[in-house]
Amino acid sequence: MSTLTVLVLLFSYSTSRGATATVATAETRSVTTTSRQDDATSSGSAPTTQEPASGGDGTTSASSGSSGTTTYDGDAVSTRYGDVQVRITVTDGRITASDVLQVPMEDRHDQMINSQAVPVYDQEAVQQQSAQIDVVSGATVTWEGYTQSLQSAIDQAHLS
């Protein structure tokens, strides 16, 4: 290996391991993330007609004011790297948006994988109108949590 390669690798290695992180996607929405933890919490919430408000169990649910548009929060699914939770927006019986509420982002590896995979999963959920979405290579654990949370949100919305 060349000296330049060694220096690049050395300086690109993350030494800080923060508990939480926020990532902005191409649409400039923020994604709240959780650190890796072993304790499992899994709870969903029913749709409401208020602005997003945090419940005592850490879940949120909201509905926009427009007719026929409601959001549904899927269950927070515990994976070996942290919780994954998805919110879908349903308009007139169709999924019009899927957004991740929680995803593991403890270290650079998590950030690199999930910042690329989550937008793909969000787009696939809207295109497929189901939790039957393809896995992004390298993000299998996130995919497992994402599809489970997505399915729970779809079930809450009573979509087939």
UniProtKB/TrEMBL annotation:
<feature type="region of interest" description="Disordered">
    <location>
        <begin position="24"/>
        <end position="76"/>
    </location>
</feature>
<feature type="compositionally biased region" description="Polar residues">
    <location>
        <begin position="24"/>
        <end position="52"/>
    </location>
</feature>
<dbReference type="GO" id="GO:0010181">
    <property type="term" value="F:FMN binding"/>
</dbReference>
<dbReference type="Pfam" id="PF04205">
    <property type="entry name" value="FMN_bind"/>
</dbReference>
<keyword id="KW-0732">Signal</keyword>
<protein>
    <submittedName>
        <fullName>Uncharacterized protein with FMN-binding domain</fullName>
    </submittedName>
</protein>
<feature type="domain" description="FMN-binding">
    <location>
        <begin position="80"/>
        <end position="157"/>
    </location>
</feature>
<dbReference type="InterPro" id="IPR007329">
    <property type="entry name" value="FMN-bd"/>
</dbReference>
<dbReference type="GO" id="GO:0016020">
    <property type="term" value="C:membrane"/>
</dbReference>
<feature type="signal peptide">
    <location>
        <begin position="1"/>
        <end position="21"/>
    </location>
</feature>
<feature type="compositionally biased region" description="Low complexity">
    <location>
        <begin position="59"/>
        <end position="76"/>
    </location>
</feature>
